[in-house]
Amino acid sequence: MSKQAISDDERTIALTYLPPVVYLPCAKVSGPQGPEVEMRPLADGRVVLLAYTALDRLARSLGPNQPWIACPVDQLGAIQERLGYDTVCFDLGLPPEMWHEAEDVDE
């Protein structure tokens, strides 16, 4: 089954009706400090938190091996205070070469 990229129209609709919970990609789901949320550097030096409005969008954007956690939208500010990201990007696709491989996944 072929997975299609998220269209701009689909992204706009999702952001218009932002759900109460988003899905955040993680490097590790379990660890001594809890989940390790992944952030990505931007070309201008800022750090972005990726957030997905649905699990299928996360899988289509980051691949089938991407660990994730569910996060209430109202907790994104607390996560920003803790992790120090500069901005949030919703439903952003990454190229397959940036996806996790099956052996990368923390069980």
Automatic annotation (TrEMBL):
<protein>
    <recommendedName>
        <fullName>SseB protein N-terminal domain-containing protein</fullName>
    </recommendedName>
</protein>
<dbReference type="InterPro" id="IPR049975">
    <property type="entry name" value="SAV_915-like_dom"/>
</dbReference>
